[in-house]
DNA sequence: TTATCATAAATTGGCGCCAATTTTAGTACC
DNA sequence: GGTACTAAAATTGGCGCCAATTTATGATAA
């Protein structure tokens, strides 16, 4: 008598609809401001109505979509003020642990960071915008993890999602992308040199001008 | 033909079950680690099953309760590491805007803060632990609001809820409470003196030793 | 021709039932 | 007397239906 669902289903089926919708918002498939009709989502993600509703409620809690009673949910578009304020929060958190990052970084970590930064560079040329976006996330996640504060890493990951509705489109020009790339390497150099002040400076510029 | 529900019901009925449960967790009525049975909540708050479930899901998203599939939800108890990490995050955010707070504070704001700090002092003697807790929240909220970053205020309010499961019980001794009181006045003095460094120092000590 | 109102279609959101899983209690067996 | 197995009770969680509200459509009158 073999149990088909051992305990948490297989890993592939385990992904929640919330993440699917979230992903489509991040990649810009679901445009900022657009209305998310429950029937459409139901069909698009091949799931039931209650699942859609739970996902929408969760995303509304995380302020990625906005709920208007009896009207439905639409993709949230942060105004300039909110975006600026969130950027400032990121600056505070990420520069605040710069010294910890520098202190904890082993030569192996630095090597890994260089590899991830290079991967970002490669994606500028060869990858899709989504791959570029993900390479960027991976780099920043790896760097921030060095601070040793797991909760902080989670928090930054969460609020980064709120920064721009369609983060894929955040790099408007090619020049801006390449500037980002340079800043990545600049951060690594600062870490390698043990220069926390330089790291803080690079991080601040990097976040503020996105 | 009078409409009994004008647009969003009357303000009293509008409070969500989520807030009710949250409040009972904060005040320690629902003890850390205890299981939240849906039937009990349903009866306790006079609401329907789906309402209970939505509330539990929201609280689980905010990591105030933990969800174990097919077992239910229980009040989350943060371990020492998590509590310490969250405190560090608060230190970074609240000290990070100390200069802004000092810069923006008018004499009227300072007056208001003194009033709120006094209210806290009064609650030590005359109030219930819950009133004391709320007076403390009000004071900190008012102070932090001076930074001008609305998103940051919201964020701190949110993560403060995650710090301790039963925040009412956070002040273990009378001595600790009175120390908190002194630190409140210390913060105000620093603001009045325009001394951002002193404010940062007071905030750091205040958060770390809770 | 355009504005307004009524009717119809579509969408949201609340509620209850039932299946799946877990826990508890009881019983038989070692 | 203790342990393992079985059956029943309790709890969780998924799903579909229907009422309430909103939006779209069309008709009528100015």
TrEMBL record, chains A, B:
Xref: Pfam families: FCD, GntR
HTH gntR-type domain segment(s): 11-78
Domain of life: Bacteria
InterPro entries recorded: GntR_C (IPR011711), TF_FadR/GntR_C (IPR008920), Tscrpt_reg_HTH_GntR (IPR000524), WH-like_DNA-bd_sf (IPR036388), WH_DNA-bd_sf (IPR036390)
Molecular function terms, GO-annotated: DNA binding
Gene3D superfamilies associated with the record: GntR ligand-binding domain-like, Winged helix-like DNA-binding domain superfamily/Winged helix DNA-binding domain
Keyword line: DNA-binding, Transcription, Transcription regulation
Presence of keyword Transcription: yes
PANTHER family attached to this UniProt entry: TRANSCRIPTIONAL REGULATOR, GNTR FAMILY, UXU OPERON TRANSCRIPTIONAL REGULATOR
UniProt-recorded name of the protein: DNA-binding GntR family transcriptional regulator
Provenance organism: Sinorhizobium kostiense
Lineage of the organism: Bacteria, Pseudomonadati, Pseudomonadota, Alphaproteobacteria, Hyphomicrobiales
């Amino acid at each position: 008598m073999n149990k088909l669902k051992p305990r948490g289903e297989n890993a592939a089926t385990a992904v929640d609809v919330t993440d699917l919708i979230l992903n489509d918002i991040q990649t810009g498939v679901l445009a900022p401001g657009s209305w998310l009709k429950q029937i459409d989502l139901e069909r698009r993600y091949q799931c039931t109505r209650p699942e859609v509703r739970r996902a929408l409620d969760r995303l509304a809690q995380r302020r990625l979509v906005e709920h208007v009673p009896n009207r439905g949910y639409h993709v949230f578009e942060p105004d300039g003020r909110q975006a600026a304020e969130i950027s400032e929060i990121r600056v505070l958190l990420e520069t605040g642990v710069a010294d910890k990052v520098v202190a904890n970084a082993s030569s192996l970590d630095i090597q890994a960071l260089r590899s991830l930064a290079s991967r970002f560079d490669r994606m500028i040329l060869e990858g899709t915008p989504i791959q570029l976006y993900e390479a960027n996330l991976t780099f920043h996640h790896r760097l921030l993890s060095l601070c040793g504060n797991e909760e902080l890493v989670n928090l930054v990951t969460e609020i980064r999602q709120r920064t721009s509705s369609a983060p894929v489109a955040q790099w408007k020009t090619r020049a801006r992308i390449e500037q980002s790339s340079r800043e990545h390497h600049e951060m690594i150099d600062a870490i390698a040199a043990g220069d926390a002040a330089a790291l803080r400076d690079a991080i601040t510029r990097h976040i503020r001008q996105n």
